[in-house]
C-alpha cells in the first residue's frame, strides 16, 4: 500500500468546501484543517504509487481554490 501526505494551501475562506471535496475522493483516508504554513493536511492511500500519483495530480490538484500542494511520500516498511 502506497501512502502520501498532501499539505495544501488554499484561498482564504475556502477550507471547509475543499475539506468536503477531499473527503469525497476515493483513496483519501484522513483530512484535517491545520494552523501554520499550510491550511489542510490529507492522508492518501492507494495500492500503487502510480495510482497515488493519479489521485493527487488529477483529482486533488484540480480542486478549485487550491493554491498549492506539497506531497510527502511514505517509505514502505517504516510505518
Report on the structure:
By secondary structure, this protein is α+β, with helices and mostly antiparallel strands. Helices cover 27% and strands 38% of the residues. It has two helices and four strands, in the order E-H-E-E-H-E. It has a four-stranded antiparallel beta sheet with strand order 2-3-1-4. The longest helix is centred in the last third of the chain and has 12 residues, at 49-60.
Secondary structure class reads: alpha+beta
Enter the CATH topology name.
Alpha-Beta Plaits
CATH class assignment: Alpha Beta
CATH homologous superfamily, by name? Lrp/AsnC effector binding domain/regulation of amino acid metabolism (RAM) domain
Residue runs with pLDDT of under 50 for 5 or more positions: none
Question: In angstroms, what is the radius of gyration?
Answer: 12 Å
Overall pLDDT metric = 95
Determine the fraction of residues in helical runs and give it as a percent range.
Answer: 25-40%
Strand runs, count: 4
Gap between N and C termini, in Å?
11 Å
Strand order of the largest sheet: 2-3-1-4
The biggest sheet amounts to: 4 strands, antiparallel
SS element count, helices? 2
CATH architecture label name:
2-Layer Sandwich
N-to-C series of helices and strands:
EHEEHE
Shape: globular
Supply the number of structural domains. Answer: 1
Strand content: 35-45%
